[in-house]
């Protein structure tokens, strides 16, 4: 059976982008067809300025939301990255496999680093090594497939490169993973700024739909989405990115095709109304289930505890083998 690994970083509240780009497939497809592991990657949340209490709160909320969205602990393994030491252990060995040049070329490092410098903040070393830790997350489980949104493609490519390089130098150790992406909505854009990705921590929340937004808030955000000055509803990601984004969102929610949907609408207003209702209906059960689960933090703790034990059992022998292969003394 194929093995799947993916994760979500608790740097902000989960968004519609996270859901349509990744989480929904984990729930509807991946956990049913493969040995699937999903992680709240809390170590990754420490790579930028952070508030410890907030990261802890968001980590718990992310785990609760993943369960609310439908991850089933009987079918998959859900755990917190920091509960499984193997990620950090393997990350160091992969730092000895990667070069600083390839890490400096990573788009996310360049963008986030530039943003931090512009704000007068220092750039944490861990922001540079971020993709190495992510490669460790993936390779520690001999993962075949990594279901992610489009923005993670370059990082998964690095994980592939590191796996191949390590295997060639030190002997067959890792599976070479591949990224899988959803057919539509692999890159959900910000509703106010449709040239940028809908991200957890975009400055104002006005263009971001959060999974826990109330129905009326979702409606308001979608109805106020920036479109363009054209009249016709057409699917043109370059020329009309705001409208294309709404068509992608509607298609992803309703199971349709964005090009075909474009032909159905005569006005931006009716497209927005239908997109808003489709998102509200999609998120309603997630929000309701989240409220129930949030009332029982003991359950979430238990899921994470069992998940970490299962994850550790898979990763431990792989990382031990990597340690031996690269030349470290066996612990006796
Ligand atoms: P993160 O937390 O930013 O996002 C989690 C998942 O959601 C997808 N995603 C989107 N998809 C479509 N449109 C969007 N606007 C959008 N925003 C986010 C992301 O592609 C991702 O699949 N580095 C990762 C976390 C990570 C990871 C891993 C993922 C750490 N280790 C190992 C896979 C395997 C990240 O920051 O995701």
From TrEMBL:
One GO BP: tryptophanyl-tRNA aminoacylation
GO CC field: cytosol
Gene3D superfamilies, per database record: HUPs, Tyrosyl-Transfer RNA Synthetase
The keyword Nucleotide-binding is annotated on this UniProt entry: yes
Residues binding ATP, per UniProt: 9-11, 17-18, 149-151, 188, 197-201
First-listed, main subcellular location of the protein, grouped into a coarse class: cytoplasm
InterPro entries xrefs: aa-tRNA-synth_I_CS, aa-tRNA-synth_Ic, Rossmann-like_a/b/a_fold, Trp-tRNA-ligase, Trp-tRNA-ligase_bac-type, Trp-tRNA_synthetase
Entry GO MF terms: ATP binding; tryptophan-tRNA ligase activity
PANTHER family: TRYPTOPHAN--TRNA LIGASE, MITOCHONDRIAL (PTHR43766)
Name of this protein: Tryptophan--tRNA ligase
Lineage of source species: Bacteria, Bacillati, Actinomycetota, Actinomycetes, Kitasatosporales
């Amino acid at each position: 059976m194929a093995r799947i690994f993916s994760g979500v970083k608790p740097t902000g509240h989960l968004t519609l982008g996270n859901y349509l780009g990744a989480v929904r497939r984990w729930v509807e497809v991946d956990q049913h067809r493969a040995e699937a592991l999903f992680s709240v990657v809390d170590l990754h949340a420490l790579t930028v300025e952070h508030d410890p209490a907030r990261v802890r709160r968001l980590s718990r909320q992310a785990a609760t939301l993943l369960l609310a969205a439908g991850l089933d602990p009987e079918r998959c393994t859900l755990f917190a990255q920091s509960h499984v030491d193997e990620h950090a252990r393997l990350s160091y060995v992969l730092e000895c496999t990667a070069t600083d040049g390839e890490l400096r070329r990573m788009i996310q490092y360049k963008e986030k680093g530039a943003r931090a410098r512009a704000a007068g903040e220092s750039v944490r070393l861990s922001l540079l090594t971020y993709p190495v830790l992510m490669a460790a997350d993936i390779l520690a489980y001999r993962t075949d497939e990594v279901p992610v949104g489009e923005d993670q493609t370059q990082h998964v490519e690095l994980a592939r490169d590191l796996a191949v390089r390590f295997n060639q130098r030190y002997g067959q150790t890792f599976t070479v993973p591949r990224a899988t992406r959803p057919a539509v909505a692999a890159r959900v854009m910000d509703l106010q700024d449709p040239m940028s990705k809908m991200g957890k921590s975009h400055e104002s929340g006005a263009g971001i739909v959060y999974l826990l937004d109330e129905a009326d808030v979702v409606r308001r955000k979608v109805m106020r989405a920036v479109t363009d000055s054209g009249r016709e509803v057409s699917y043109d990601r370059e020329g009309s990115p705001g409208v294309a984004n709404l068509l992608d969102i509607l298609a992803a929610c309703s199971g349709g095709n964005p090009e075909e949907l474009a032909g159905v609408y005569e006005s931006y207003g009716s497209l927005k109304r239908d997109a808003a209702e489709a998102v509200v209906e999609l998120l309603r059960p997630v929000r309701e289930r989240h409220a129930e689960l949030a009332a029982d933090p003991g359950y979430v703790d238990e899921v994470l505890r069992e998940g970490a034990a299962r994850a550790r059992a898979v990763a431990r022998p792989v990382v031990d083998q990597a340690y031996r292969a690269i030349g470290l003394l066996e612990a006796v």
